[in-house]
Design goal:
5 strands, Alpha-Beta Plaits, about 160 residues, five-stranded antiparallel β-sheet, 4 helices, about 30% strand
Length: about 160
Amino acid sequence: MNEFTHIDDKGNAVMVDVGGKAVTHRVAVATGRITMSRTCYDAVKAGAMKKGDVLGVARIGGIMGAKQTSSLIPLCHILNLTKCGVEFIFHDEDCALEGICTVQCEGRTGVEMEALTGVSLALLTVYDMCKAVDKAMVISAVHLVEKIGGKSGHFMFPKDGDGI
């Protein structure tokens, strides 16, 4: 029996048939960080970047990214998202900005990839908005924090997850 859901018996890549699954409420939360120089961090925090509202544009970038996940990730289902939000937390001690993307839908498959794509695009947008000040920014620790709904049930990222 084939253990991989996206590969058929002949070894071909396939999109999983979710037609027989029940429609349920699905939620996923993903997070990641972008670390930058003190000069860049202070400018972002003060809203003083020359390109404009870094966090506002990054929120939109993250939401747009989540909405486009099926176009970006092969074999991902198109989902009708009912909610998507991106928020940021400043970490002064590390000159790091944490992005958090929360996505919801009523569907037959989960929204984990949408949340992960959303936070990744939000952080990439921060990079793009700030690269004139700091090209050495580092995006890291992108991971799923929580998943609710579906056959596999509730998932919470372990608190001792490799120091993340």
